[in-house]
Design a protein that fits this description.
Oligomer: single chain
CATH topology of the largest domain: Immunoglobulin-like
CATH class of the largest domain: Mainly Beta
Largest sheet: 14 strands, mixed
Number of domains: 2
Distance between the termini: 7 Å
Helix content: 25-40%
Low-confidence stretches: 1-9, 12-39, 304-334
Structural class: alpha+beta
Number of strands: 14
Length: about 350
C-alpha cells in the first residue's frame, strides 16, 4: 500500500510539474492575445487623407502600438525580429483610408546595387473578403485570400540604382542590344527604351521587380494578394498611394488605399482585422524573413468591438499552437509529456506489496 501511495504521490508531482511547465510556456501566448485586444486602431475622419508622412494632419490620429514577431514558422525564417514594435495611426475621408507606420531603424537601406544588399520595406494586410471564414494572419489560406499593400524603399528612392552605382569605377567594353555606345555602362531602362527588351529577361517576362518603368507607374506601394505562403502576386489594378521618410533613425511610411475594395467597402463603425510587417534590410531581412503582427481590429470612426476580428487562436492554420509546438517549444512539450508517460507506465507496472 505504501508503494501505491508513493506511486500516486509521484504521479501527482509529475502531473503538477508538467502542468506548471506548460502553463509557463503558454503564458506569453495569452499575454500576446491580451495585448492584441488592447491595441485596436481607430481611424479619425479628415477632409482629405494626406500622403506625406510628416503632414500635420497625422497629429489628429490616435497612436496604436503594435507588437511584431519574428517569422519563424516556415522557411525562409528568422528567429529574432530586428523590429519589435511599430506605431500605427489611421485617417480616412469619403473615398480613402490612410495609415501611417513608424518604427526605429538605425540604417537607411534603399538600394539593391549588389546581391548582398537588401531594402527596408513595410506592408499592411487585411482580408480580401471579410464575409468569408477567418483569413489566416499568415498571408491567408486557400480560397480565403488577403490583400497586401507593400511599400518598397528602393522603388521610391533608387529605381535605377544598379551595380555601376555600387561600383562607380567599373568598366564595360560593350553591352550588346542595350542601346548605349561601346564603353558606356547601360541602365536597365536603356534596354527597355533604346535597346531590346528581351535581353532584360525578367522585365520581358513581366516581372515588375526588374522593370523600372512599371515601378515608376505603380509608385512605391504595390498592391498584391495571396492565399497562403508562396502564392503572392501583384494585382492587375494598382490603386495605392504612399511614401516613406527616414529621419534620425526612424522610418515613417504612409499607405493610402481606396475604401471601396473589389469585394467590400471600409464602412464607418465596422471593425476589420489588419496586420503589419516590417523588413530591415541591414539585418538581411527579405522575403519571408521579416517581423510581422497578428490581426488587430481597425475601425473607421467608432470604437471597434474587441474580439470580432479573426485572431491567431481561431486561425485555420493552427494559430498560436503552431509557434508553440514548433521548434524548441515543441521539443520541450514532447520531452515533458514523454517523461510523464514513462513514469506513469512504470508506476502501473510495479505490483503492490
Amino acid at each position: 500500500m505504501k508503494i501505491i501511495d508513493k506511486t500516486l504521490s509521484r504521479r501527482s508531482l509529475l502531473t503538477g510539474g508538467a502542468v506548471a511547465v506548460l502553463g509557463y510556456m503558454v503564458r506569453p501566448v495569452f499575454r500576446s492575445a491580451k495585448a492584441q485586444a488592447q491595441a485596436a486602431i481607430v481611424a479619425t475622419p479628415v477632409g482629405e487623407v494626406p500622403v506625406h508622412p510628416v503632414d500635420p494632419r497625422w497629429s489628429q490620429a490616435k497612436v496604436a502600438t503594435i507588437t511584431l514577431n519574428p517569422q519563424d514558422l516556415v522557411l525562409p525564417r528568422v528567429f529574432e525580429a530586428a523590429t519589435a514594435l511599430v506605431e500605427v495611426k489611421a485617417l480616412y475621408d469619403a473615398d480613402r483610408l490612410g495609415l501611417l507606420m513608424e518604427w526605429g531603424d538605425s540604417e537607411r537601406d534603399v538600394d539593391l546595387g549588389t546581391v548582398l544588399q537588401f531594402r527596408d520595406a513595410a506592408a499592411i494586410q487585411f482580408p480580401e473578403d471579410p464575409s468569408l471564414d477567418a483569413a489566416s494572419f499568415m498571408m491567408g489560406q486557400k480560397d480565403v485570400g488577403v490583400v497586401i499593400y507593400h511599400w518598397k524603399s528602393d522603388w521610391q528612392f533608387s529605381r535605377l540604382h544598379d551595380v555601376d552605382e555600387a561600383y562607380p569605377n567599373m568598366y564595360g567594353e560593350l553591352y550588346q542590344y542595350s542601346g548605349v555606345a561601346a564603353g558606356e555602362i547601360p541602365e536597365s531602362i536603356d534596354y527597355l527604351v533604346n535597346g531590346r527588351k528581351e535581353f532584360l529577361t525578367a522585365a520581358a517576362a513581366g516581372n515588375s521587380i526588374a522593370d523600372p518603368l512599371v515601378q515608376e507607374a505603380i509608385g512605391p506601394v504595390q498592391k498584391m494578394r495571396a492565399e497562403g505562403f508562396g502564392t503572392i502576386e501583384p494585382e492587375a489594378e494598382q490603386d495605392a498611394g504612399g511614401m516613406g521618410v527616414w529621419h534620425e533613425g526612424r522610418w515613417r511610411v504612409t499607405f493610402s488605399v481606396p475604401r471601396q475594395q473589389s469585394r467590400f467597402k471600409f464602412e464607418e463603425g465596422a471593425a476589420l482585422p489588419f496586420s503589419f510587417a516590417v523588413w530591415d534590410g541591414a539585418q538581411g531581412e527579405r522575403n519571408g524573413q521579416k517581423a510581422f503582427s497578428f490581426w488587430h481590429d481597425l475601425s473607421l470612426g467608432a470604437a471597434p468591438v474587441i474580439g470580432t476580428s479573426p485572431s491567431a487562436e481561431d486561425d485555420g492554420g493552427g494559430g498560436f499552437l503552431v509557434p508553440l509546438l514548433s521548434s524548441a517549444g515543441g521539443v520541450t512539450v514532447a520531452a515533458v509529456m514523454a517523461a510523464v508517460g514513462f513514469r506513469l507506465w512504470r508506476g502501473r507496472e510495479r505490483p503492490p506489496e
